[in-house]
Amino acid sequence: MNMLSLENELKANAYPGRGIVIGKSPDGSKAVCAYFIMGRSTNSRNRIFVEDGAGIRTQAFDPSKLEDPSLIIYAPVRVLGNKTIVTNGDQTDTIYEGMDKQLTFEQSLRCREFEPDGPNYTPRISGIMHMENGGYNYAMSILKSNNGNPDACNRYTFAYENPVPGEGHFIHTYMHDGDPLPSFEGEPKLVKMYDDIESFTDMLWNSLNEDNKVSLFVRYIDIQTGKTETKIVNKNK
User: Fold this and answer.
1) Is residue 47 part of a domain?
2) What is the rounded distance in angstroms from the CA atom of residue 84 to the CA atom of residue 201?
3) Which end of the chain is more exposed for a tag (fewer CB within 10 A), N or C?
4) Class of residue 90 by CB neighbours under 10 A (exposed 0-12, middle 13-18, buried 19+)
5) Burial grade of 68 (CB within 10 A; 0-12, 13-18, 19 or more)
6) Pure H helices in 27-179
7) pTM of the shown model
8) Contact at 8 Å (CB) between 217 and 230?
9) pLDDT tier at 212 (50, 70, 90 boundaries)?
10) What CATH number is attached to the domain comprising 59?
11) Is residue 1 part of a domain?
């Protein structure tokens, strides 16, 4: 698989929807994750990320304009011990609760499907990062309709053991803008990672479509110590 420029991927796509990036810094010392949200409707754009303990949650920027909160208000990031969970919906809680009961990442998602927002049937994308005894691995998942058919759910899990420094993987909800929105296809894209959280955050935010971007979360975790550094960028201020 050829390594892609995440910057070019984002700049060439006006509407990838929501996206997750997970990988390892080039110097091999940091586990890296990022999550961004975009929106086309007033309801989707009326959001910000706020810190919530070790994780984050979405919140209405202007509560008076909040319409249907069911698919837009959730905790994208939660931390369970040495595991960091990042998703594009309330399946964050499903994974957290399942893994807390000793289920695997994949098993925890068996009770969930794509979002009930026909005709788009937005995929549920999820990631899990696990650090233990100086080691690091991660996995990503996508639950999607069968080519737009809501009667069937296709489930894909991709696991990355002993990730290579400087490499990461990028998965997002939509291939591009459209009506209905076409679901992501294939395995997560291999992308280049950055050593510096400031540069990585700036690149991601500046590469997202100006009209459609809403919020961005980036976290670097020291694989040896577990110390975290987090950046949150919100368009609404």
Assistant:
1) yes
2) 19
3) C
4) middle
5) exposed
6) 42-45, 91-100, 105-108
7) 0.98
8) yes
9) very high
10) 3.60.20.20
11) no
